[in-house]
Specification:
By secondary structure, the chain is mainly beta. About 5% of the residues lie in helices and about 40% in strands. A 6-stranded antiparallel β-sheet has the order 1-2-3-9-4-7, with no helix packed on it. The longest helix is centred in the middle third of the chain and has 4 residues. The protein is globular and about 45 Å long.
């Protein structure tokens, strides 16, 4: 690898669609790990649109990222919750559900939790 890596999310290494056309994950595989941009469409909910792919009761990914646009609600398995919006930095431990708030897609960048996200169980 050279001293500069320049990529565009419009040309990802991989795109993983969410169930029922509710969004997608665009993914780069880098030397430092996977980096992704997820577009969550209005009506998207982890427990409805990713759970069937993941095969777990709640999201088991740890996320470190940034909300570019839109809004999302996160509810941890223990009941702790928060509303996220544009400009928010996030660190979310495994064990949560999430859903889009409002009528605008939520776009999130993540550099720790997307390597296996929205990947069918067993892949």
């Amino acid at each position: 690898m050279g001293g500069l890596v320049h990529r565009n999310f419009d040309k990802p290494d991989e795109t993983r669609p969410f169930e029922a056309g509710t969004g997608r994950l665009d993914l780069f595989n880098t030397e430092g790990g996977a980096v992704g941009r997820a577009v969550f469409e209005p009506g998207w909910r982890w427990s409805l649109h990713i759970k069937p792919l993941a095969g777990t009761d709640s999201c088991r990914s740890a996320h470190t990222g940034y909300i570019v646009s839109g809004r999302m609600k996160i509810v941890m398995d223990d009941g702790e919750s928060g509303d996220l919006g544009p400009g928010d930095f996030i660190q979310i431990a495994p064990g949560h559900d999430a859903w889009v708030l409002g009528d605008e897609p939520c776009v999130a960048l993540d550099w720790t939790g997307y390597s296996d996200y929205a990947k069918p169980a067993g892949d």
